[in-house]
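Support request, priority: normal
Reporter: lab tech (M.K.)
Component: structure prediction queue

Hi team, I submitted a job for Recombinase family protein from Massilia litorea yesterday, and the status page still shows it as pending. I've pasted the exact input below so you can check whether something in the sequence is tripping the parser. The sequence length should be 499 residues. Please let me know if I need to resubmit or if it's stuck on your end.
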Amino acid sequence: MSSSQPIQAAIYVRMSTESQNYSTDHQRAKIHEYALSKRIEVVREYVDEGKSGLDIRRRTGLRSLIDDVQSGNADFQLIIVYDVSRWGRFQDVDEAAYHEHTCRRAGIKVVYSGEQFSDDATPLGALMKSIKRMMAAEYSRELSTKTFNAQCRFTEIGFKQGGHAGYGLRRLALTKDGTPRRVLEYGEAKGAVTDRVILIPGPAHEAITIRRVYALYLEQKLSEPAIARLLNAEGIASEFDRPWTHSMVNSLLTNLKYCGTLAFNRKSCKLSSRRKSNPHAEWVVNEGAVEPLISLSLFAQARDERARRVRRYTLDELLVLLQRCHETHGRVNAKIIAADPSMPDPQLFVRGFGSLIAAYDAAGLIPCPSHVFVETKKLIAAKLRDLFAEVKRLALSSGATVHEVKAPHTLVINQCVRVRIEIATRRRPKRGLVNWRVMPLLDADFVLTARLHGDTHELIDYFLIPAVKLANGPLYLKESNLERLAELRYLSLASMFGP
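Reply from support: The job had stalled in the queue. We restarted it manually and it finished. Here are the results:
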């Protein structure tokens, strides 16, 4: 490049919120004055408006600048920044140096137009730059401490510190002498820096909804997601006019402001650190700062109920609870467990033991008939699948053609004979003999039925029954007619399909 040609440069400007002295317009003006005095041509600009300098994550302007530098296609040889603090107030000063080194390694120098060492590459300039970086970081730490202390003090007075009001509440702006100014809309900022904000009750119908949420949670034992679904189904609008979510309902049940208490510092993310929950001892609490929408006792009941629901139980503890529930009610099932306030959710037993039946067995309890029936149905379904597969295999091995059809458990053999495969369970009627019932089927030529032993749940024998035998209704297999039906009976599937 000829010495008569100006150096092409990009500028980077950033403003957070701490001072108009650092407005982007002010930075631009000073940078352009510097560029003019040095015969530098500004060809590109990168801007971060209202962005903290503590890290690079949310600074799209600086990230775009670094990306362009690393791509090797940058059309500038210099980056001009107003001062070290505009580059960043990184808490790790090495991070600021790292980003600057990334640019320098790509052949692009970073200079600070507002610093005395703006383009000084001497050891003294490097030392001054390091000191400035530490000063920038320390400024943020001091400002964070001062701001936090002020927020604690204002919370103790009764003023809300940032954030939205919450469903059922509204923010009221006060002048510095305590005169009400106006109720703030969602997302609206207070009118002046000296204004303060307090919480006041919102519309009456929102307070009614909050009390109803507590009733659904405590009396009807609904979960938070279930409550959200119910409110959405009824068309009840949330604070944001968006569908209710689990977290919205959770806020109603856990935020102290609904029972009249302001709590600050429950969670924190100081200096752009990860957001964390703080121990109760670190909270700043002001009881009675807000007009309560629910009683303190009701809030405490919801807190205790939530603790009961989320408590982690060992398997031994769950077994003891099951035994105690059985002693109290004389029997135990999912409905009884769900209705007993001393018991956790029935699904906790399912997750711990695989099923309620397995939990009952582990606790030495006799499961109720309905659960036995469900487990038996599962066992029969599994055996029926195995039986169907075995019939198909044997038919194919005997040289027949076999096709499955949409009808359940039905095979078409040799393209003409439809066979329905069933398992008959033992029946104990109040009158008459124990029997196994085979129901008539209109869509099959034959019914292949296997009898299931009532105690061992093993298959006893097999019957290949033509549809005409079922024309007049069900056929009942019992000890008294097995000899008469001997031509239909097979002791094994293999014998049914021949040698």
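The CA atoms of residues 73 and 337 lie 68 Å apart. The first strand starts at residue 7 and ends at 15. Let us know if anything else looks off. Ticket resolved.
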